[in-house]
Amino acid sequence: MEIYFAPMEGITGYIFRRAHSECFGAVDAYYMPFLTPKPGKGLTGRESNDVLPKHNEGMRAVPRF
Protein backbone atom coordinates (compact mmCIF):
# COMPACT_ATOMS: atom_id res chain seq x y z
CA MET A 1 0.00 0.00 0.00
CA GLU A 2 1.26 3.47 -0.86
CA ILE A 3 0.66 6.53 1.29
CA TYR A 4 0.39 10.01 -0.23
CA PHE A 5 0.45 13.30 1.65
CA ALA A 6 -2.22 15.69 0.33
CA PRO A 7 -1.56 19.43 0.25
CA MET A 8 -3.37 22.16 2.15
CA GLU A 9 -2.79 25.63 0.71
CA GLY A 10 -0.82 27.82 3.09
CA ILE A 11 -0.12 25.01 5.58
CA THR A 12 1.83 22.17 3.98
CA GLY A 13 4.79 24.12 2.60
CA TYR A 14 8.32 22.77 2.52
CA ILE A 15 8.93 23.47 6.22
CA PHE A 16 5.90 21.41 7.23
CA ARG A 17 6.78 18.61 4.76
CA ARG A 18 10.38 18.42 6.02
CA ALA A 19 9.28 18.35 9.66
CA HIS A 20 6.69 15.65 8.94
CA SER A 21 9.20 13.61 6.94
CA GLU A 22 11.86 13.82 9.67
CA CYS A 23 9.46 13.07 12.54
CA PHE A 24 7.16 10.49 10.97
CA GLY A 25 8.49 9.45 7.53
CA ALA A 26 6.81 6.48 5.84
CA VAL A 27 5.10 8.63 3.19
CA ASP A 28 5.61 7.58 -0.44
CA ALA A 29 5.00 11.04 -1.93
CA TYR A 30 4.29 14.55 -0.71
CA TYR A 31 2.08 16.48 -3.14
CA MET A 32 2.57 20.24 -3.17
CA PRO A 33 -0.22 22.79 -3.44
CA PHE A 34 -0.89 23.97 -7.01
CA LEU A 35 1.71 26.39 -8.35
CA THR A 36 0.41 29.27 -10.44
CA PRO A 37 3.12 31.06 -12.45
CA LYS A 38 2.08 34.57 -13.42
CA PRO A 39 2.60 35.72 -17.04
CA GLY A 40 5.86 37.67 -17.24
CA LYS A 41 6.56 37.20 -13.51
CA GLY A 42 6.92 33.45 -12.96
CA LEU A 43 6.58 31.97 -9.49
CA THR A 44 6.37 33.97 -6.28
CA GLY A 45 9.23 33.76 -3.80
CA ARG A 46 7.18 31.46 -1.60
CA GLU A 47 6.37 29.12 -4.50
CA SER A 48 10.02 29.11 -5.64
CA ASN A 49 11.20 28.17 -2.14
CA ASP A 50 8.62 25.40 -1.99
CA VAL A 51 10.02 23.60 -5.05
CA LEU A 52 13.77 24.06 -4.44
CA PRO A 53 15.51 20.67 -4.38
CA LYS A 54 17.48 21.59 -1.23
CA HIS A 55 14.18 22.13 0.63
CA ASN A 56 12.83 18.73 -0.41
CA GLU A 57 15.84 16.44 0.07
CA GLY A 58 15.14 12.93 1.25
CA MET A 59 11.49 12.89 0.19
CA ARG A 60 9.53 12.51 -3.02
CA ALA A 61 7.90 15.93 -3.41
CA VAL A 62 5.54 16.24 -6.38
CA PRO A 63 4.85 19.76 -7.70
CA ARG A 64 1.49 20.43 -9.39
CA PHE A 65 0.84 23.09 -12.01
In summary, what is this structure?
Helices cover 26% and strands 18% of the residues. The chain is built from two helices and three strands; from the N terminus they run βαβαβ.
**Rg (C-alpha, Å):** 12 Å
Strand content: 15-25%
Tell me the overall shape: elongated
Give the SSE order as H and E letters: EHEHE
The overall strand count is: 3
Total count of domains:
1
Overall helicity? 25-40%
Q: Taking all residues together, what is the mean pLDDT?
A: 91
Structure overview:
The chain is an alpha/beta fold. It contains 2 helices and 3 strands. The chain has one domain (4-64). Helix 1 (14-23) links the parallel strand 1 (4-5) and strand 2 (29-34). The mean pLDDT is 91.
Record keyword descriptors for this entry.
65 residues, alpha/beta, three-stranded parallel β-sheet, 3 strands, 26% helix, 18% strand, elongated
SSE topology:
Blueprint: E1 4-5, H1 14-23, E2 29-34, H2 45-51, E3 61-64
Parallel strand pairs: 1-2, 2-3
